[in-house]
């Protein structure tokens, strides 16, 4: 159904430099995308233009050069580092006599390879269907065919209309299933809200080291690799932060410049974890020369998914790739942490991240001394579960004297079921 190619194909890459910043793409990043998709790049054709050519995207001379490279290297696909219109793809294919895939389709293909969960696969399929629906005309040479036969006579339906209708039906079916998954997610979020568990979401440019940081903090085994879009499906884990208590940490898909709108739309449910978080950890590969551009791209996507106003803590990751940079916390004029310098891979500065998290989540801490009689042993067990007991002694009557230090929200939660005032030592 999809215009997907198998990994391991031989490709000619095409990259055009435009003076307009909004149209410009990064060649090095494109080569990483191609490598991540499992395709072998045989040659790179580059050129400069002020605006795209309406027929071929590149000039007519350049398209001949691409066709010659295809024949010379015996390539079977041409990959453009740009988004092409359906007619441009078709026209270049006619000259090169092989398939042409643009940047958007390539990213969708990588996402299709990476999706692991049922929800992730549905979201990728929906994005692919949205993308392919604008390109249906490419694949069909039999549009004049009408449905015929007994019981099927009449005006009929062209093959293209049939395909469009089937696509719409499939897209509606997937959307309904995703809506169902989203309702289940909302229930999970509601239960976390009832338990008053704050959510912290990792965001950042693809390959910034989010999953490595996630694994280091949570001791999880989320797939992490030095390639683009290693993480696709969101992962949630619970961590314990001193003076805060339990916190939900979410690892999310990495962003990229000019992320296809079909993908942003399809992944909005997944990115709700980001939108509804109390704090975003914006992970940046500080050793990347394009870090400033990458940060701006992340901000653009956050704005697009309505998460632009969520408070952020900047994580300057991969300091082990730089000389003479030690882990540290940078603060603003009010002493509030705004940046943490660390290396997730080398496990440097993680304790500083925990410290900054405790401060930024701004949790009110309460301290009390409680006298708990033997009959209220269940209450003592609850405080032990929260790991908030700083001192424990017993008096002559066998009462347990507990000194506790815990977040106010946890104290209030217990207070809803127990009359804690009776136990407080004044």
UniProtKB/TrEMBL annotation:
Keywords: Coiled coil, Cytoplasm, GTP-binding, Magnesium, Metal-binding, Nucleotide-binding
Coiled coil residues, start to end: 164-191
Gene3D superfamilies: 6.10.250.2860, GTPase HflX, N-terminal domain, P-loop containing nucleotide triphosphate hydrolases
Occurrences of domain Hflx-type G (ranges): 198-365
CDD domains for this protein: HflX
Domain of life: Bacteria
Subunit structure and binding partners: Monomer. Associates with the 50S ribosomal subunit.
Summary of the function given for this chain in its UniProt record: GTPase that associates with the 50S ribosomal subunit and may have a role during protein synthesis or ribosome biogenesis.
Family, similarity comment: Belongs to the TRAFAC class OBG-HflX-like GTPase superfamily. HflX GTPase family.
PANTHER family from the UniProt entry: GTP-BINDING PROTEIN 6-RELATED, GTP-BINDING PROTEIN HFLX
The protein's name in its UniProt record: GTPase HflX
Species this chain originates from: Thalassotalea loyana
Lineage: Bacteria, Pseudomonadati, Pseudomonadota, Gammaproteobacteria, Alteromonadales
Gene field: hflX
